[in-house]
Amino acid sequence: MVTNPEVKQQLIDHFGSESFLENGQLNTKHLAKEAFEKGRVKELNAIVHPKLPAAASQEIEEAEAQGYDIFVYEAALLLENLEPGSLDYIVLVLADENHRIERVKQRDNSSEAEIKQRIKKQRNFEKVTDRVDYVIRNNGTLEELEKKAEIIYQSLLPERDT
């Protein structure tokens, strides 16, 4: 989404040039502070949410045209924005709050209080596990996560051939 020039410009217009780092990557710490600490979540969502379904559909079509059998799309907003049945399977990756806090601290040096404030304002995805096909608990190492994802991937391969 942040590679979309229109989205990028809107983020800059609404949240300032600090929304992107010098290397062009999204400045998640700045946007989180603006959205969650300054009460601008709706404003941020109004920029990103409308673009998600079209962007996802376009990427899916491109993957199919290139002959890919399995397509993975990472988007926390997916469950809120895509029509039921637009994807064959949905895999939800969840981590407990302590792991989430530690990972955000490592990523952008936010304080624990800042992170907890953000988490309170985010959707509780534990409540939507009944809307997905697979749930991966990501409370371990990256290698453990990769193994869990590989198991699901392998289980889907035979189904794609039918």
Quick take:
The chain has helices spanning 5-15, 28-37, 41-48, 52-65, 78-81, 97-108, 112-121, 142-161, and strands spanning 91-94, 134-137. The protein is globular, with a radius of gyration of 17 Å. The protein has a two-stranded parallel sheet with strand order 1-2.
Helix/strand structural class: mainly alpha
Mean pLDDT: 86
Considering the protein shown, what is the CATH homologous superfamily?
P-loop containing nucleotide triphosphate hydrolases
CATH class: Alpha Beta
Describe the main β-sheet briefly. 2 strands, parallel
- Spatial strand order of the main sheet: 1-2
Unreliable stretches covering 5 or more consecutive residues: none
Task: Provide the descriptors you would attach to this structure in a database record.
2 strands; Rossmann fold; mainly alpha; 162 residues; two-stranded parallel sheet
Describe this structure in words.
This protein is mainly alpha-helical and 162 residues long. The chain has a single domain, classed as Rossmann fold, CATH 3.40.50. Helix content is 55%, strand content 5%. It contains 8 helices and 2 strands. Strands 1-2 form a two-stranded parallel ribbon. Helix 6 packs across helix 7. It is globular and about 45 Å long. It starts with a helix and ends with a helix. 6% of the residues are buried.
Record the SSE blueprint.
Layout: H1 5-15, H2 28-37, H3 41-48, H4 52-65, H5 78-81, E1 91-94, H6 97-108, H7 112-121, E2 134-137, H8 142-161
Helix pairs in contact: 1-3, 2-3, 2-7, 6-7
